[in-house]
Design goal:
This protein is an alpha+beta fold. About 35% of the residues lie in helices and about 15% in strands. It is built from eight helices and seven strands; from the N terminus they run E-E-H-H-E-E-E-E-H-H-H-H-H-E-H. It is globular, with a radius of gyration of 18 Å. The chain starts with a strand and ends with a helix. The relative contact order is 0.14.
Length: about 210
């Protein structure tokens, strides 16, 4: 595991066995790092993971995942978080048109191709008066929603892992992980590889 930071020398208490990498070597494009400076961390991390994959640095994993077993070796790693959405908290993609489409999204005036009539109207109404920047779009516009759209557009839905593999516990049920072991055992299966940590657990380490 490599932990990337834009200030790697300042990191403390990095667990043994975890390498530290300089995030500047991964994503230094000012159009993307501006998102970090302006506080749009989730949006910036979407693009950061695409650069990780493009540079063949391995599979991307979010920091709030608890691993129960090792990831399988595969060029494609992603999974359903719900019946409609594929999440990118665990993500591996080979170089190709899918990954390039995610990387090359312009900084402004990009209309997501998966927007329905209502969101398209909202987009064009705003665009009539001012530029529409990526941070003006709904949360997840270049994350789960985009990944789901691109996977479907490329006919790769059959490669998406079932929800029980990476996201067996719904966000609203995460607190159940603090309950008795019998309850926890009912939330996961023999196929479960990762579980998203409850928010208060993540906050405790920040």
């Amino acid at each position: 595991v490599t932990l990337f930071s834009y200030d790697p020398d300042s990191l403390i208490n990095v667990p043994a066995g975890v390498d530290v990498g300089d995030a500047n070597d991964v994503m230094s494009d000012p159009r993307r790092t501006r998102l970090l400076k302006d506080g749009y961390f989730a949006l910036a991390s979407d693009f950061f993971r695409y650069e990780i994959l493009a540079k063949r640095l391995g599979c991307w994993i979010d920091l709030d995942l608890i691993f129960l077993r090792q990831l399988p070796a595969s060029d494609y790693l992603f999974g359903w978080e719900s019946e409609r959405s594929i999440n990118g908290a665990v993500l591996a993609l080979p170089n190709g048109t899918l990954l390039e489409a995610a990387r090359k999204i312009p900084e402004k005036n990009w209309l997501p191709p998966y927007f329905g009539p209502r969101r398209r109207c909202q987009y064009w109404l705003r665009r009539a008066f001012c530029p529409v920047y990526l941070e003006d779009l709904p949360w997840g516009a270049v994350g789960p929603e985009l990944i789901t759209y691109l996977v479907k557009a490329h006919g790769l839905e059959h490669l998406a892992q079932p929800r029980e593999v990476f996201y067996p516990v719904r966000y609203q049920d995460a607190k159940k992980l603090y309950e008795q072991s019998e309850t926890v055992d009912q939330l996961i299966t023999a196929n479960t590889i990762t579980v998203r940590a409850p928010r208060q657990t993540v906050d405790a380490f920040n």
